[in-house]
């Protein structure tokens, strides 16, 4: 069928003609190599052809047919402009290793443009366009000639066999593989394709079963019931990967449904799927994930304030998970539990999802391998863009993407507010392209109209908070009480260790002994961000800049105060002999922060050098009319034992060019919290200073 494309092919208009340059046939007729010079009329702009000085381009194509090995290799390269452009293409038809009645097709090409009269990018686009159209037409052309052969009465080609004398000689020396009989080529040949790889199933009803193990093929009823539609190649990939696991993997072998998820995640590339599957199996064993549902009980804080839960199923039978993200205090959960417990809870949700998929497969009598997630963003505000919280979210996404591929069937995002694009900009680069295609986003009440929620979920189970009649038992979330917050040290002592250290640090601030953090900036216009909580006492927050590097930090644990600072350190960087305005300068107005406040902010640096973040003890001012302190000030000072304050802080430096969504998005992330953060303040002075610096 392939040979019929020559000397010219009406289905390929640009293929004008071809001439045979050389031809070779082996004596036993097993090898046939033919080399042709092909003339192509490339679909390129007339001006480009005129500049190049050619109307046609010529390619050399070499076809090598090996009837003994049952392979056809096709190599092609350009003759025209070979000193400017190098094009190489390789195609191959081979017999499938697991089923000799299947023919595999594979195609690859490379393009290297050294120079082309200043039109390099145009030539690249033309080449890509031509190659893409050829790939799409390749299957159509081979099917056309297969059908043409059938119409002429040629329904099979006898298998090549060695000459009689060779055959007798070989039979006395070693056993030869049995030759299967000729088979009919059905009309449906080459109907399946995946990327640029195709399977031609040429097994006829009269063919004998292929010799091999009983696991060479999967039972058709089993596939239909538990796995869904699979092409012959996909089925083969599953068998081969499962067999490899059985031979090499020590431990529990995952079910076919789970192996299939990893194959789908890598477009059935066995090597890539095997790599990520092995990494995931190691991770599961290391962290005992298989037993998480039986051995781990979520803390009460999660049960009360994590606004998510399972809720019936969608119209396709997929389990439905509802997450009221807008009502969730992400910062409070991270501060009360730490990232470790939050990650473990998300993993338990995914494990429960896998279990529910298996149950629904049995209930509905068809394969269900993924679930639907409904995310309600009503109430989402800038507090949810709290930098450490977003960072924790990205780490969770990374773990889930690596270990639970192809488990999300559909994600419905409802009531997306105007702040949503900022969050999406931060999160989307970490989400796999295949997963991103499953997202459906509705703003406002759009989900109630055509193409909305009713297309995916039955009316009877739409949750009450979305205007439905079904009572949803998902927790309503709300603010996590600060009394449940824990220090970095307490979180570090947790025995759950799926991640490393916590992102927060603790510091003690004394009267006369501030705590200072050094940040070195190499590139101007970098962004320093901070987030801290004043756990005890009142402090003044400052930012300074110096061209000089401070001396190595001096830690003050006992020092002049004769007090230890358990659960926090005290570092002083600014030398006593330094003078403000000469050795260092203030780049932000001082910010007074009261006990219990949470402060977030950012500063766009104007110069490279050394920046010092300082938390200083806040002395109570005297009364304006007299030198006597006010009663309120005296009472407040009594609460600060030994003139000591305590803060928990987190800082990060990011390049402004790396922050997607522009600097205005970053600035707004600390200016405009809703009622969710009644006790939270933002550093407005820092905001205005950032604007000036920028």
Automatic annotation (TrEMBL):
Mind listing the GO biological process terms from this record? Answer: innate immune response; negative regulation of RIG-I signaling pathway
- Entry's InterPro entries? CRAL-TRIO_dom, CRAL-TRIO_dom_sf, CRAL/TRIO_N_dom, CRAL/TRIO_N_dom_sf, GOLD_dom, GOLD_dom_sf, PRELI/MSF1_dom, SEC14/CRAL-TRIO_domain
Keyword Nuclease among UniProt keywords = no
The record places domain CRAL-TRIO at 298-474
Q: Which Pfam families match?
A: CRAL_TRIO (PF00650), CRAL_TRIO_N (PF03765), PRELI (PF04707)
Which keywords annotate this record? Cytoplasm, Golgi apparatus, Immunity, Innate immunity, Phosphoprotein, Signal transduction inhibitor
Q: Which CDD domains match?
A: SEC14 (cd00170)
Query: GO MF terms on file?
Result: RIG-I binding
Give compartment(s): Cytoplasm; Golgi apparatus
Q: Which GO terms describe its cellular component?
A: cytosol; Golgi apparatus
Q: GOLD domain: which residues?
A: 500-653
Q: Provide the PRELI/MSF1 domain boundaries.
A: 1-154
What SMART domains has UniProt attached to this entry?
CRAL_TRIO_N, SEC14
Q: Tell whether Cytoplasm is among the UniProt keywords.
A: yes
As for what it does, the entry says: May play a role in innate immunity by inhibiting the antiviral RIG-I signaling pathway. In this pathway, functions as a negative regulator of RIGI, the cytoplasmic sensor of viral nucleic acids. Prevents the interaction of RIGI with MAVS/IPS1, an important step in signal propagation. May also regulate the SLC18A3 and SLC5A7 cholinergic transporters.
SUBUNIT field? Interacts with RIGI (via tandem CARD domain); the interaction is direct. Interacts (via GOLD domain) with SLC18A3; the interaction is direct. Interacts with SLC5A7 (via GOLD domain); the interaction is direct.
Name-wise, this protein is SEC14-like protein 1
Species of origin reads: Cuculus canorus (Common cuckoo)
